[in-house]
Specification:
The protein contains 6 helices and 16 strands.
């Protein structure tokens, strides 16, 4: 009987994306690597718990949830969280950044200095630049200043990010142009927190890191995992939590390219087994902006 594995998430290392498993195993993902797994027959997706603790209820969670937590564990996970703005006394220094995901898609955010660019890789930022560095609350005030004065959001939906990855501008200069203009406007604002040191514009481009140069347009995205289903494909690109898999075939209703985006957050909570020799039969839906009425289908082939 095949051993069952549980994925604890996709992380970005200096060498690229890595899948981590509950047993401590790590699987490095490189371009051209075959990603193949099956979902345990008769299995259900269970809550992954919160802050290193198992869910006391062993609750079943929806297949389409990217958080993979029940309501109670989600609440506990966000308690004392910088991201949820419930932790105001963190003494660590923070950076404010501007991140670009495609034309017209720029967001402002903050990240602990000790994390380096990891937060930007996790979000799938195509290009970014630091804005400043200082205490947490000063970084928060700068973030709010940009939202209020320049209408820069602090979130970009993943559906929007996926829709433009195959049609990004060709050069780093083109991809950084929108960031450069907004960075200058941000530093010129009045009301900038005095305790936040401003940073010069130095764009960092992730197209090569993500493998997005020349990546084929995706035909669709996995909407959820299902018991007994399977995925198999060659990794052609990865950005944030998204794996772009060439499945070796296509679907007429989804464009026929054979490339499907799998959000690795959907893996958490499922029991997974080796899937060598199996095809791709997870539910797939059209990417945002790639067609109307495509809906969800049972299989690609």
């Amino acid at each position: 009987m095949a051993r069952t594995w549980k994925c604890s998430g996709l992380r970005w290392s200096a060498d690229g994306p890595v899948l981590e498993w509950e047993a401590g195993r790590r699987t490095a993902l490189t371009w051209g690597k075959r990603v193949a797994f099956g979902v345990e027959e008769g299995g259900v997706r269970t809550c992954v718990g919160a802050r290193g603790h198992a869910c006391p209820l062993g609750a079943v969670v929806p297949g389409r949830s990217t958080g993979a937590r029940c309501e109670e564990c989600a609440r506990l996970d966000r308690a004392h969280s910088v991201a949820a703005d419930t932790l105001a006394d963190d003494p660590r220094p923070y950076r404010v950044y501007l991140a670009w995901f495609g034309p017209g898609m720029v967001k402002v955010g903050i990240t602990a200095v000790e994390r380096g660019p990891a937060r930007l890789l996790e979000q799938g930022a195509v290009c970014f630049s630091w804005l400043g560095i200082g205490p947490l609350m000063a970084a928060r005030r700068a973030e709010e200043l940009l939202r209020a004065a320049l209408h820069v959001p602090d979130r970009i939906p993943y559906a929007d990010k996926r829709a433009v990855r195959a049609v990004l501008p060709d050069t780093e200069a083109e991809r950084a142009a929108e960031l450069a203009e907004l960075h200058a406007r941000a530093l010129a604002l009045t009301g900038w927190p005095e305790s936040l040191d401003r940073a010069p514009f130095r764009p960092v481009d992730h197209v090569r890191v993500f493998g997005l140069a020349g990546v084929p347009a995706a035909a669709g995205e996995v909407s959820e995992l299902v018991a007994g289903g399977a995925a198999s494909g060659e990794l052609v690109a990865a950005a944030g939590p998204d794996l772009h898999l060439a499945t070796g075939g296509g679907s007429r209703s989804l464009g026929g390219s054979g490339v499907v985006v799998l959000d690795a957050r959907l893996l958490a909570g499922w029991g997974l087994v080796p899937g060598a020799g199996r095809g791709f039969d997870l539910p797939v839906r059209a990417l945002k902006g790639t067609g109307e009425g495509a809906g969800v289908q049972d299989g690609l082939f």
